[in-house]
C-alpha cells in the first residue's frame, strides 16, 4: 500500500528571525509611546503639584496664625495640600510604571542580543 511521506516543513530560519524581530520592535514601539505618555502626565502632575504647594504656602503666608486663621483659608490650604499629595502619589505610581517599562525593554534587548549571536 502506498503511503505518502509527510514531512513537516517550516519557514526559513531567516524569516522566523525577522518575524521575531518585528514583534519585538512592535513591543518596543508601544513601550516608547507609553513612556512618552507617562512623561507628559508626570510633567503635568508635577506642575500642578508645585502650583498647589505654592498656593498653599501663599495662603499660609498671607493668613493669620493657625488658631486665628479663617475656616475658609484653612479649608483652601487643606484642599491644596490634598491635591498636591494626590499628585505626588500618582507620580510615584507612574515612576513604578516607568521602571516596569524599563525592565521589559531590557528583556527585549537581551532577546535581540541572544538572537543575533
From TrEMBL:
<keyword id="KW-0175">Coiled coil</keyword>
<protein>
    <submittedName>
        <fullName>Uncharacterized protein</fullName>
    </submittedName>
</protein>
<feature type="coiled-coil region">
    <location>
        <begin position="35"/>
        <end position="104"/>
    </location>
</feature>
<feature type="region of interest" description="Disordered">
    <location>
        <begin position="1"/>
        <end position="22"/>
    </location>
</feature>
<feature type="compositionally biased region" description="Basic and acidic residues">
    <location>
        <begin position="12"/>
        <end position="22"/>
    </location>
</feature>
Amino acid at each position: 500500500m502506498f503511503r505518502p511521506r509527510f514531512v513537516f516543513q517550516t519557514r526559513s530560519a531567516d524569516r522566523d528571525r525577522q518575524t521575531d524581530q518585528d514583534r519585538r520592535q512592535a513591543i518596543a514601539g508601544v513601550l516608547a509611546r507609553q513612556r512618552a505618555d507617562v512623561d507628559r502626565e508626570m510633567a503635568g502632575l508635577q506642575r500642578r503639584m508645585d502650583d498647589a504647594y505654592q498656593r498653599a504656602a501663599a495662603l499660609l503666608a498671607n493668613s493669620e496664625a493657625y488658631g486665628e486663621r479663617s475656616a475658609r483659608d484653612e479649608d483652601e490650604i487643606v484642599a491644596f495640600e490634598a491635591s498636591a499629595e494626590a499628585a505626588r502619589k500618582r507620580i510615584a505610581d507612574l515612576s513604578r510604571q516607568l521602571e516596569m517599562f524599563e525592565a521589559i525593554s531590557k528583556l527585549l534587548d537581551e532577546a535581540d542580543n541572544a538572537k543575533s549571536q
